[in-house]
Amino acid sequence: QAFFCLLLCIPWGSSCPRSCQCTERAGAKAVLCSSRHLEEIPEDIPRDAVFLKLDANSITRIPSNAFRHLSHLEEIDLSRNAIEKIDRAAFKGVAAGLRSLDLSGNRIRSIPKEALLALKAKLRLANNPWHCECALQEVLWEARLDPDSVQDITCHTAPREEYVGKPLLQVLDAGANLCGVRQRTTDVAMFVTMFGWFTMVIAYVICYVRHNREEACGHGERLRALPSAQAPAE
Question: Which residues cross the membrane (predicted)?
Fold first, then answer.
C-alpha cells in the first residue's frame, strides 16, 4: 500500500529528462539542457516547464509539434546548434504564450514563414547562413525580431550577387524587394513559356500551309502529265 501511495504521489508531469537539469527560476520551472550533446529535442520535458535551454547542442531539426505539450513555455533557447530544418508546425501549441525564441548561431538557410509569423515571441535569428528570399523578408517585416540582433541577419546567398554578404535590413533599406524579384522571375518564366507555345503554333501553321501547297502542286503536275485527249479526225 505504501508503494502504491508513493506512485500516486510522484509528480509524473514534472519529471526531469536524464540529460538535463531542472531547477526553479523566479518560482517557475527551468529546464537546463545546455551543452549535453543532444541531437534532438527531448520528449520527456516536464509539462510545467517555463524556461527551456537547449543551446550548444547538435540538434539538426525542429519537427512539427515539438513543444505542443509544453503550454507553459515562455522562453526557448535553441542557439548554437546545427539546426537546418524547421517544420511549419514546429511551434504549434506554444505560439500564444512564448515570449522569447533564440535560433541564432545555427545552419538555417530558409524557414517557412508560417512557423514564425504566428509567434508573438521576440526572435533572435542572427548568425545563420540565410538565403535572402521573399519568405525571410516577410518574417523580417512582420515578426517581432530582437532589435539587437537584426543587423546580424546576413545574406549568405541571394537572388542577386550584390546582396551577398550584406545585412538583410541594409538590402531592404536600399529599396530591394525580394518578393518583387520572385514575381519578376515568375513573370519572365510565364512570358518565355507563352512565347514558346506561340512559336510552336506559328511553326505548325506554316508547315500545314506549306504541306497543302505542295500537295496542290503535286496534284497539278499529275494532271498535266496525263495524256491529252486525241483530237477528232477531220
Answer: 188-209
CA distances from 105 to 6, 78, 83, 102, 150 (A): 44, 9, 9, 9, 13
- Give the residue carrying C-alpha cell 538557410: 109
| Bridge partners of residue 75, in order along the sequence | 51, 100
Query: Cβ distance 92 to 64 under 8 Å?
Result: yes
Strands 21-25 and 155-157: unpaired
Residue 122 phi, psi (nearest 5): -80, 125
Looking at the structure, tell me whether residues 77 and 157 fall in a common domain: yes
C-alpha atoms less than 13 angstroms from C-alpha of 233 in its C-beta half-sphere: 0
> CA-CA distance, 199 to 204, in Å (whole number)?
9
- Please state which of the ranges 32-46, 65-79, 105-119, 187-201 shows the lowest mean pLDDT: 187-201
User: In terms of domains, do 42 and 129 share one?
Assistant: yes
Residue 187, pLDDT score: 41
Is 16 within the bounds of a domain? no
Give domain status of residue 93, yes or no. Answer: yes
Query: How many Cβ atoms from other residues are within 10 Å of residue 113's Cβ?
Result: 17
The answer to whether position 13 is within a domain reads: no
Domain boundaries, position 204:
179-216
Backbone angles phi, psi at 51, to 5 degrees: -120, 130
